[in-house]
Design a protein that fits this description.
Blueprint lengths: L1 E12 L4 E10 L2 E6 L5 E6 L4 E4 L1 E3 L7 H8 L3 E11 L2 H11 L4 E7 H10 L8 H6 L3 H4 L4 H16 L5 E3 L9 H14 L3 E3 L15 H12 L3 E3 L2 H5 L3 H13 L4 E5 L4 E5 L20 E3 L9 H10 L4 E5 L6 H12 L4 E2 L7 E2 L15 E2 L2 H17 L5 H16 L20 E4 L20 E6 L2 E5 L2 E2 L12
Parallel strand pairs: 1-4, 1-5, 6-7, 7-8, 8-9, 9-10, 10-11, 11-12, 12-16
Antiparallel strand pairs: 1-2, 2-3, 5-19, 13-15, 14-15, 17-18, 19-20, 20-21, 21-22
Helix pairs in contact: 3-6, 6-7, 7-8, 8-10
Bound molecules: zinc ion (ZN).
Zinc ion binds next to loops.
Length: 487
């Protein structure tokens, strides 16, 4: 007798190669059996005609909140990891999540950005994303510093790695004047801890001929020099139209034996603090952007001109903005975005952001979300969109291959130095019972740049540690079964 039985679905487990109709038996948060014959369970979830897959592991979720994670679980995500920016100190982030409860599993890299802000500006890290958004616009944070201070920054990062951080988050692209030696020192700390470093790359030399080092070269050379596992975040957004060159740089490093891994999301716009250094009006042309490519999320306003953008950066530098780096209505741009995901063993990762309450006051437990709540559509739709466009509409990927890139591949990437992740990304007996059941004929994203928080549909049941958070397509707001993932 199992706690939960998932009945009669097509089980697709890329980790083991299983692709056939099986019953899934779950006991105590663990997969107990995959059986061709009928199993008995206290709860039976019907999956006939549907696909049963290991839950999706998002390597790039800034959601450290219940509302954002609820949008993600309705999109098939069962583990949401904040690895690019990270949190510092991680212990504070883990403690807060444990007290609040989370609908999906969660985990954090340490945040170089927040540790750096603490050392250089004396602003204590709180373990929140806002630590780094607050630092972004501050001159001392963006500048090169002394070797002695780099040592103190690295010491803080190492303290967090000892405390169980999943890796080192280094969004160096937000502080392009920081010396390459500091980046190498951080990667060396990651090597000593046996964990990956996650990077939002600097500008490419094609984007800024004056950059200290080409963003892609920096990642691959650091992998070669230090032996670090370097993870290249959202290759789509930082590469834009130079994607093929970046892929060639990565391929060269991989062929030479370096461990460089990649992720991408299926959208042509990013979202970041409007005060980010690379959004300075005088630098936009380097990315082929204009002020109207920048859209203030809370007001929905596209910037009319450089003056308005400058004023917003000055007065509301930590407010979120869409950055429309590729026009999704253009076929060539869409094809580029597809290639970003199809390259090598690229993981699908969302870059999800916590939703923003525009007019009413924030209520983390409100569900469904009120109408004024907005965000980036990728928060709610990355995985539904991947399955809709790349599998069903274009056939660019087989269904098992898409599942592999949404679950098995990311779990393996983040498992470097994190044994707990070896139990994710698969439905083999003994694995964590993080399971997604979806209808391959109808599964889809519904979030758009206007209706940014409309949840995906077609994800019929989503189980986190054996507990159904989504059942018959409906989110259960009474359960928060997410557990910490810690090294
Ligand atoms: Zn980023």
């Amino acid at each position: 007798m199992y706690d939960v039985v998932i009945r009669g679905g097509r089980v697709v487990d890329p980790a083991t190669g299983v692709d056939e109709v099986r019953e899934v038996g779950i006991t105590g948060g663990t997969i107990g059996a995959l059986s061709p014959g009928e199993l008995e369970g206290r709860t039976v979830l019907d999956a006939r005609g549907h696909v049963v897959a290991p839950g999706f592991v998002d390597l790039h979720s800034h959601c450290d909140d219940i509302p954002g994670m609820r949008l993600q679980v309705l999109d098939g995500v069962t583990t949401a990891l904040e690895l690019e920016i990270g949190r510092y100190p991680v212990a504070a982030a883990y403690a807060r999540a444990a007290i609040d409860g989370r609908p999906v599993n969660y985990g954090f890299a340490t945040s170089w950005g927040a540790a750096r802000f603490e050392v250089l500006a004396g602003v204590r890290g709180t373990g929140r994303l806002q630590d780094v958004f607050a630092a972004m616009n501050v001159e001392v944070w963006q500048q090169e510093t002394t070797p002695a201070r780099v040592e103190r920054i690295v010491a803080r990062v190492e303290g967090d790695l000892a405390a169980g951080a999943l890796g080192v988050g280094i969004p160096i692209g937000y502080a392009p004047a920081v010396a390459p030696a500091e980046y190498v020192a951080l990667a060396a700390a990651a090597v000593r801890a046996g964990r990956p470093a996650y990077t939002h790359a600097r500008d490419l030399v094609e984007q800024d001929p004056g950059v200290l080092i080409d963003g892609a070269e920096e990642i691959v050379r650091t992998a070669g020099e230090t032996g670090a596992h370097m993870h290249y975040c959202h290759v789509n957004s930082t590469s834009g139209r130079h994607l093929d060159r970046v892929h060639a740089t990565i391929t060269r490093a991989q062929a030479a034996g370096s461990r460089v891994t990649t992720e991408a999301y299926p959208y042509g716009s990013g979202m970041t603090g409007i005060g980010a250094s690379f959004l300075a009006p005088e630098l936009l042309h380097r990315r082929g952007l204009t002020p109207s490519s920048i859209q203030h999320v809370a007001s929905g306003r596209r910037m009319a001109d450089a003056a308005e953008l400058r004023r917003m950066r000055g007065e509301h530098g930590s407010d979120l903005a869409f950055v429309h780096f590729l026009d999704e209505s253009e076929a060539t741009a869409r094809e580029l975005l597809d290639r970003a995901i199809l390259f090598g063993d690229t993981a699908v990762a969302s870059d999800a952001m916590e939703p923003v309450w525009r007019t009413t006051s924030r209520n983390s437990l409100a569900w469904p979300l009120p109408g004024d709540v907005s965000g980036h559509p990728r928060t709610a739709g990355t995985y539904g969109r991947t399955l809709r466009t790349l599998v069903r509409e274009t056939g660019a990927m087989s269904l098992p291959e898409a599942i592999r890139r949404c679950s098995t591949v990311p779990a393996r990437i983040a498992a470097t130095g994190v044994p707990a992740l070896a139990r994710k990304g698969s439905l083999r007996p003994g694995a964590d019972a993080d399971v997604v059941v979806f209808d391959p004929e109808t599964v889809t994203d519904n979030a758009t740049y206007r209706e940014t928080t409309r949840p995906s549909t077609g994800f019929v049941h989503v189980l986190v540690n054996g507990i159904p958070v989504v059942r018959d397509g409906v989110l259960d707001p009474t359960v928060l079964p997410g557990r910490p993932v810690r090294a």
